[in-house]
């Protein structure tokens, strides 16, 4: 098995400048901003699963993820009117989820609890075999050992497939900062023996 840093695609390569496709959510967001409840509900249904997945990966707890996403959904009732189309709707939504996770972590979560909560990843998916189960546990532990700001960047780019520019907008940082964080995450994952697959270390 390859080291974690090479397993996860952290390139965040987007389309060439000027070729980005139109935002498929733009019409729904515009209607929702004007008070169209049906459009608002459709927008949430479209993105709820990814919002929940981001919150789950960042909090390490299904229960906390539910709390975070419910808070975000409630806040969006008012915040959607402030959307100005400066980024894709999905990028804007994911940025709100990231900030909500940060607030939630400050209020309720300690590092020890978060690491313990990441164990729920072992129960993801339909009856994984032993090797897949091992990989999930290993990945959860590796993410837990990263600095929170590195982890949230990896989750958005490697986990959710956002480009560097989209992740930068979601996190409220410069695109260069995203690139640096991914480089630093890769370096730490390669240098920390705990984030190298035990099977590979022992030549299994």
TrEMBL record:
According to its UniProt record, what is one Pfam family this protein matches? Sigma70_r2
A Gene Ontology molecular function term for this protein is: DNA binding
Segments carrying the region annotation (Disordered) are 1-26
- Annotated CDD domains: Sigma70_r4
Domain RNA polymerase sigma-70 region residues, every copy: 43-109, 142-190
Highest rank taxon of the organism: Bacteria
* Record carries keyword Transcription regulation: yes
> Which interval of the chain is the signal sequence?
none
Provide the alphabetized UniProt keywords: DNA-binding, Sigma factor, Transcription, Transcription regulation
Per the record, the similarity remark reads: Belongs to the sigma-70 factor family. ECF subfamily.
Q: Which PANTHER family match?
A: RNA POLYMERASE ECF-TYPE SIGMA FACTO, RNA POLYMERASE SIGMA FACTOR HI_1459-RELATED
| Full protein name | RNA polymerase subunit sigma-24
> Organism source for this protein?
Methylobacterium terrae
